[in-house]
């Protein structure tokens, strides 16, 4: 089995406090991997190290065999790491399509062209991406007036503009209704499988995690304490003690399985 | 009735957000306002405490119409509000956060002091001098609730108390809310998580696209999964 | 060595007033998020009122009573301004707030001259501190010692106030989240007013304490505000301790710098500021701004290139302007040329402000550099106008390269303050370096080539250059680069995440704006036939800002309209009244309060008032599906 992302011995501490200690894991192409854990467990620090926003104290991050530690976020992005944010980050003064076009212009290194109308560049590619996430009908709308779920889908299209091999999604379904959550995750999973993109996401909604992740990793106090299928992680007594609790808060269906 | 809201209409700029919203909270009751994200839950709460400038309708709190008052006057009358994103003062210590929330005691009711709040949330008692910004999400939620209690409210609006918290912490939060109920407080929470609401609430409203779509007990809601599916889409 | 020690003591004494004013500015900014440009005006008023109370009405309160009473009176004025003006604009973009307080500054300048006259005033000396003591054979005024003690004493008092009183805790809470404080039952209106009054009190006290040391002048407001901006940028906005450290640092640099480099002590301060900003972008003790507010120029109506009809309309307008010399007289043509120069200047500022979201308060720097560049080319190289018109923009470009390198490390208010400081430094160089710039006397004899020397010829020249300039800027807005620039403005997080190098893109925007402003400045030099330091001064920067705002911050080229309307109005006003600053200030204040979207923004709003799209989330759509929902629900029951 090939490895897309290979993380080894990642360490980061802030003024003596260990935020992340000795985290190692791997992501395969087309795999959907969830990273869960209590607040402050180091999930965000991990994410920020993966896309180059924070430089780890030690450890290596190899993307398709190439080291990316020490590269700025821009370069990591060019190597094929897309990212979505917990709170949607889009360009509110532009139309939906223009949002995607900017990302495409940047990807094709055309941002320093001073002439020509950017609104006509990469039309086909932009439309293709918008069709992929089901936003083609709304291409001309100002991004500022989109519904929240649509903003999330637009963000996904923007994140796909650099033809990523790895997608980092920080709480992708936060603030969404349950039905929208399922739709967004299905959409993501479908795209990931078809294009062989590895997906790493953090999430607090256990229904989303257990339903959509191939495997789940649990981070606690900066350390990986478990990795396995949703089934395995759910029934892990240690994980229940530190994070999941008594299981009152996610769907009864899962709870019954756990009891059995 | 502790709080009676009727014909509430709210606007953000030209956008009409709430349509004739009405609900009520009885003395000592815990009520849930359920709905999807963007359904209007937070706007409803914000309108009740006067944070939405363009609103119309009546908000009767303890027999007095407070709909024309500015937020601080409403809060001083005993209507406490815990916002959805907690909004604790990260640069202030736990004790100082409480000081900001402190208001005069209401006659005949035991005054909330930091010590009483530490009994409710023992975690906080161990970190009185810690800055709000150095606390975990769950601790911040506790601090935010404690800070509102320092204003000696008789009714508390809790906006999405479980959002973004680990399931284990959410269970602790449920215990704390039930403890507050035992202290005689009336509480209304907004929630997307039906499981959580079931743990603590007596009655529930469902709001969708700015209108109240359902009102009834939790048991009635359980008995009608089609309503749940239509508006909550679990 | 002795000299150094004595100078150091004098520096410490100067630091006291600087600290008072800076801490006041910092405290006000902390809670209200408003950078109170009028702070210098309050400092000046403190000095003037203290002068009146101690000199004209001495005896009633005594000297010290007079100082305190003066500060209290000014604090009361400040509270009044907060209640009447600022309360209306707390939710406006910060740029508008800065501009409104600047309008007040302009008004105060004229009012002060009206009341106290234009002459410098010499206040009384402080009783009990009139003497001096000898240190290494040099005299040090005892009053300086008092000031040296006063600084740390005020710092300590402020610390106690903010950490040991309920009011202080509330203020610190409001500094972080003022709306939440209101949700906890605190009347934030009065909290804001009291904070503003305290800040103004500190500024006025700073001014009042100066009267035994220096003369009271009607231009002391601008000189202190620039120094104060430098202090808070170095110390960190919102940090009182930072203000203290930075005030000492800046005052010592000034005091000791004079010994080493008498002419360019200001540059030493600027260099220190630059180093601090590079190492700590938010100042020594400052913190990154939380939840950075939307910068100027976020439009929710996506921009589109001109339609065919709009192009034709613009061409017709330009053509009719070109016909003007056929029937207009010389005076009208030179007014027309001046307006056109400012059209280009305003358009260049508009580009960086609305497309780039970079609000500059020192755009005059590039305008003036362009003017001086052209003048130098003529004077030192004997270059003809055609060459000089290229040298000017080159100067603007170089200035933008230097200042941009520092500025793009900052954003929002910090950016605006740094641009202002930069412009003031260029101004003081032009003012002081008499050998090269002629100082106050300026450079004369900058005349156009023969073909453009008639008012008619020069009008056509400026028309041609301005039209091409505005067209190029507009083209840039819609180019891939323009899209990238807007992306950095709309959302830094996202633009970073799609590989856009924010600093470089914004720096380039500054270069573009600086170059075009330089073109305008060079034209201006030939229009007037001379160059003076005024072309670099704050009023020019503010003219540009007002033109942009008047035109409309959310528009693509609103500045063109803003410049025409404003410049015509200003020229007419100048001919009508001596109190032009008072009127101008009032217009700015009114504009900010009444028409924040500007002329073109207003017209566009009106043009786009149409029903929402059928699949919109507008009220109608929500209403329709709502009805369906009710039906479903009844069925369910």
UniProtKB/TrEMBL annotation, chain A:
The keyword Transcription regulation does not apply. Keywords: ATP-binding, Nucleotide-binding, Transport. The lineage of its organism: Bacteria, Pseudomonadati, Pseudomonadota, Alphaproteobacteria, Hyphomicrobiales. Belongs to the ABC transporter superfamily. PROSITE patterns: ABC_TRANSPORTER_1, ABC_TRANSPORTER_2. Residues 5-246 form the ABC transporter domain. One of its GO terms (biological process) is D-alanine transmembrane transport. Transmembrane segments: none annotated. Involved in beta-(1-->2)glucan export. Transmembrane domains (TMD) form a pore in the inner membrane and the ATP-binding domain (NBD) is responsible for energy generation. One of its GO terms (cellular component) is plasma membrane. One of its GO terms (molecular function) is L-isoleucine transmembrane transporter activity. It holds the Pfam family ABC_tran. This is ABC transporter ATP-binding protein. It comes from Rhodopseudomonas palustris.
Automatic annotation (TrEMBL), chain B:
Keywords: Amino-acid transport, ATP-binding, Nucleotide-binding, Transport. It holds the Pfam family ABC_tran. It comes from the Bacteria. GO terms for biological process: L-amino acid transport. PANTHER family: ABC TRANSPORTER ATP-BINDING PROTEIN, HIGH-AFFINITY BRANCHED-CHAIN AMINO ACID TRANSPORT ATP-BINDING PROTEIN LIVF. Involved in beta-(1-->2)glucan export. Transmembrane domains (TMD) form a pore in the inner membrane and the ATP-binding domain (NBD) is responsible for energy generation. This is ABC transporter ATP-binding protein. It comes from Rhodopseudomonas palustris. The lineage of its organism: Bacteria, Pseudomonadati, Pseudomonadota, Alphaproteobacteria, Hyphomicrobiales.
UniProtKB/TrEMBL annotation, chain C:
This is ABC transporter permease. One of its GO terms (cellular component) is plasma membrane. It is found in: Cell membrane. The keyword Transmembrane helix applies. GO terms for molecular function: branched-chain amino acid transmembrane transporter activity. Belongs to the binding-protein-dependent transport system permease family. LivHM subfamily. It comes from Rhodopseudomonas palustris. One of its GO terms (biological process) is amino acid transport. The chain crosses the membrane at residues 25-51, 63-86, 98-118, 139-162, 190-212, 224-250, 256-279, 312-333, 339-359, 387-406, 413-434, 458-483, 504-527, 547-570, 582-603. Keywords: Amino-acid transport, Cell membrane, Membrane, Transmembrane, Transmembrane helix, Transport. The keyword Membrane applies. Its main location: membrane. Signal peptide: none annotated. It is a multi-pass membrane protein. It comes from the Bacteria. PANTHER family: ABC TRANSPORTER ATP-BINDING PROTEIN, BRANCHED-CHAIN AMINO ACID TRANSPORT SYSTEM PERMEASE PROTEIN LIVH.
């Amino acid at each position: 089995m090939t490895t897309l992302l290979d993380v080894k011995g990642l360490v980061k501490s802030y003024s003596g406090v260990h935020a992340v200690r000795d985290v190692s894991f791997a992501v395969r192409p087309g795999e959907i991997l969830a990273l869960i854990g209590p607040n402050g467990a180091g999930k965000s620090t991990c994410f920020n190290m993966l896309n180059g926003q924070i430089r780890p104290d030690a450890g290596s991050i190899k993307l398709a065999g190439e080291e990316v530690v020490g590269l700025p976020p821009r370069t990591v992005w060019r190597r094929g790491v897309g990212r979505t944010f917990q709170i949607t980050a889009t360009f509110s003064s532009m139309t939906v399509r223009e949002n995607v076009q900017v990302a495409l212009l940047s990807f094709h290194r055309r941002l320093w062209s001073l002439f020509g109308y950017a609104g006509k560049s990469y039309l086909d590619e932009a439309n293709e991406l918008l069709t992929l996430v089901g936003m083609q009908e709304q291409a001309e709308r100002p991004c500022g007036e989109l519904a929240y779920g649509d903003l999330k889908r637009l963000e996904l299209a923007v994140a796909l503009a650099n033809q990523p091999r790895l997608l980092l999604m920080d709480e992708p379904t936060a603030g969404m209704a349950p039905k929208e959550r399922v739709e967004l995750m299905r959409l993501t999973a479908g795209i990931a499988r078809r294009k062989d993109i590895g997906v790493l996401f953090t999430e607090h909604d256990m229904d989303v995690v257990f339903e959509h992740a191939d495997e789940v990793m649990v981070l606690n106090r900066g350390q990986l304490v478990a990795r396995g299928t949703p089934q395995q992680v759910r029934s892990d007594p240690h994980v229940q003690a530190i994070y999941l609790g008594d299981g009152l808060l996610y769907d009864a269906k899962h709870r019954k399985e756990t009891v059995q | 009735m502790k709080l009676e809201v009727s014909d509430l209409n709210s606007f953000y700029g030209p956008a009409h957000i709430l349509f004739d919203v009405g609900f009520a909270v009885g003395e000592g009751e815990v009520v849930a306002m359920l709905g999807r994200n963007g359904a209007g839950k937070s706007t409803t709460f914000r309108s009740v405490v006067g944070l939405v400038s363009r609103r119309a309708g009546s908000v009767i709190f303890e027999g007095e119409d407070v709909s024309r008052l500015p937020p601080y006057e409403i809060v001083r009358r005993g209507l406490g509000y815990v916002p959805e994103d907690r909004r604790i003062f990260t640069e202030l210590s736990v004790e100082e956060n409480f000081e900001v929330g402190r208001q005069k005691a209401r006659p005949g009711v035991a005054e909330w002091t930091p010590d009483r709040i530490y009994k409710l949330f023992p975690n906080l008692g161990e970190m009185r001098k810690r800055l709000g910004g150095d606390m975990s999400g769950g601790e911040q939620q506790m601090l935010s609730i404690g800070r509102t209690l320092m204003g000696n409210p008789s009714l508390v609006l809790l906006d999405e108390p479980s959002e973004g918290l680990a399931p284990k912490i959410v269970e602790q939060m449920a215990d704390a809310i039930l403890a507050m109920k035992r202290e005689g407080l009336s509480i209304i929470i907004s929630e997307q998580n039906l499981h959580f609401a079931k743990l603590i609430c007596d009655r529930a409203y469902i709001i969708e696209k700015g209108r109240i779509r359902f009102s009834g007990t939790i048991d009635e809601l359980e008995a009608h999964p089609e309503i749940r599916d239509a508006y909550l889409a679990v | 060595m002795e000299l150094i020690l004595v100078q150091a003591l004098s520096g410490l004494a100067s630091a006291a007033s600087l600290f008072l004013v800076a801490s006041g500015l910092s405290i006000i900014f902390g809670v209200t998020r408003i950078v109170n440009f009028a702070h210098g005006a309050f400092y000046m008023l403190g000095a003037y009122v203290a002068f009146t109370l101690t000199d004209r009405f001495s005896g009633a309160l005594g000297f010290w009573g007079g100082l305190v009473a003066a500060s209290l009176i000014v604090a009361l004025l400040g509270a009044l301004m907060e209640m009447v003006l600022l309360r209306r604009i707390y939710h406006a973009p910060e740029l508008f707030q800065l501009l409104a307080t600047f309008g007040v500054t302009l008004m105060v300048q004229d009012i002060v001259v009206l009341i106290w006259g234009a002459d410098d005033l010499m206040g009384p000396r402080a009783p009990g501190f009139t003497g001096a003591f000898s240190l290494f054979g040099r005299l040090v005024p005892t009053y300086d010692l008092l000031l040296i003690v006063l600084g740390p004493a005020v710092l300590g008092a402020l610390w106690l106030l903010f950490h040991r009183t309920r009011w202080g805790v509330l203020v610190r809470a409001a500094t972080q989240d003022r709306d939440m404080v209101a949700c906890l039952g605190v009347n934030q209106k009065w909290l804001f007013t009291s904070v503003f009054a305290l800040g103004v009190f500190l500024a006025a006290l700073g001014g009042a304490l100066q009267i035994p040391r220096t003369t009271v002048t009607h231009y002391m407001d601008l000189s202190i505000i620039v120094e104060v901006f430098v202090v808070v940028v170095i110390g960190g906005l919102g940090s009182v301790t930072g203000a203290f450290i930075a005030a000492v640092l800046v005052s010592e640099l000034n005091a000791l710098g004079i010994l080493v480099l008498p002419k360019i002590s200001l540059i030493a301060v600027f260099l220190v500021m630059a180093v601090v900003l590079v190492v700590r972008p938010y100042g020594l003790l400052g913190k990154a701004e939380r939840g950075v507010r939307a910068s100027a120029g976020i439009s929710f109506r996506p921009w589109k290139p001109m339609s065919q009809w709009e192009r034709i309309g613009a061409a017709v307008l330009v053509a009719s302007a070109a016909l003007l010399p056929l029937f207009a007289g010389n005076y009208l043509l030179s007014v027309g040329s001046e307006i056109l120069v400012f059209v280009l200047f305003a358009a260049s500022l508009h580009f960086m402000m609305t497309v780039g979201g970079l609000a500059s308060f020192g755009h005059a720097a590039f305008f003036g550099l362009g003017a001086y560049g052209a003048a130098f080319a003529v004077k030192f190289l004997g270059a003809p106008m055609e060459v000089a018109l290229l040298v000017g923009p080159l100067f603007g470009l170089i200035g933008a390269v230097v200042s941009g390198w520092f500025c793009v490390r900052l954003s929002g208010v910090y950016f605006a303050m740094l641009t202002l400081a930069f412009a003031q430094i260029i101004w003081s160089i032009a003012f002081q370096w008499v050998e090269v710039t002629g100082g106050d006397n300026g450079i004369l004899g900058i005349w156009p080539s023969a073909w453009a020397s008639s008012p008619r010829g020069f009008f056509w020249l400026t028309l041609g250059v301005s039209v091409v300039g505005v067209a190029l800027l507009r083209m840039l807005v819609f180019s891939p680069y323009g899209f990238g620039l807007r992306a950095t403005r709309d959302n830094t997080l996202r633009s970073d995440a799609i590989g856009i190098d924010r600093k470089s893109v914004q720096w380039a925007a500054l270069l573009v704006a600086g170059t075009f402003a330089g073109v305008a400045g060079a034209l201006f030099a030939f229009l007037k036939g001379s160059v003076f330091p005024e072309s670099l001064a704050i009023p020019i920067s503010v003219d540009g800002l007002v033109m942009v705002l008047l035109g409309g911050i959310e528009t693509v080229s609103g500045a063109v309209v803003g410049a025409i309307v404003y410049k015509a109005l200003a020229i007419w006003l100048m001919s009508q009244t001596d109190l032009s600053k008072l009127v101008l200030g009032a217009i700015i204040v009114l504009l900010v309060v009444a028409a924040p979207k500007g002329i073109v923004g207003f017209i566009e709003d009106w043009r786009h008032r149409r029903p929402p799209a059928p699949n919109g989330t507008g009220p109608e759509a929500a209403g329709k599906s709502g009805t369906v929902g009710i039906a479903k629900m009844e069925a369910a029951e």
